[in-house]
Amino acid sequence: MSYAKEKGKKFETKIAKQIHEALVSFNPVYKELVEQVDNKNVLPKRDSSSGVFATANGDIELGIAKSFFPFSIECKDHKDLDLSINSIFKNKIKKIYDIWNLQCVPNARKASLTPLMIFKANRTETFVIHEWKTTDSIPDWNLYIKLNDNLIMCLFDEFLDKWCKKK
């Protein structure tokens, strides 16, 4: 397996684990369900068809977490993503928009889920892009960037924390 594919696989596995841990920490219903089922196969994990088949509905198979975290997730850990402050604030992140439009949104629509793109570049924080309809749907974020009329970008840790605490 190439270095890039192995790096992507590790990133997807890490994200699945973070989602599970946040839901266990902040959602007692999810935690109880996980304890009752006692089967690791129903927990969030990297989708084994991720990056291989066009039939995949995202990079993370959410299992029972889908009821609590209803997203189709596309993960990208690319060294060549330009995530400089200058690029982000000047909205010059074409590669990110391409991934969003060509992979994330179609996969989510196919699965009847909300698209969520989680990404990072070398030596950067992990970010998330997601849709929003009104400013009322944005929790009390510390930092977010409105990319256009229906997309915002924020830190993944903050998104996960706010999402899991509100449910």
Structure description:
The protein has 167 residues and is α+β, with helices and mostly antiparallel strands. The chain has one domain. The chain is 41% helix and 19% strand. It is built from 5 helices and 7 strands; from the N terminus they run ααβββααββββα. It has helices at 3-26, 28-37, 85-89, 94-111, 156-166, and strands spanning 45-46, 60-61, 71-77, 114-120, 127-131, 144-146, 151-155. The strands form 2 sheets. Strands 3-4-5-7-6 form a 5-stranded mixed β-sheet. Helix 1 (3-26) crosses helix 2 and helix 1 (3-26) runs parallel beside helix 5. The mean pLDDT is 82.
Protein traits:
alpha+beta, 5 helices, 167 residues, 7 strands, two-stranded antiparallel ribbon
List the helices and strands and how they pair.
Layout lengths: L2 H24 L1 H10 L7 E2 L13 E2 L9 E7 L7 H5 L4 H18 L2 E7 L6 E5 L12 E3 L4 E5 H11 L1
Helix pairs in contact: 1-2, 1-5
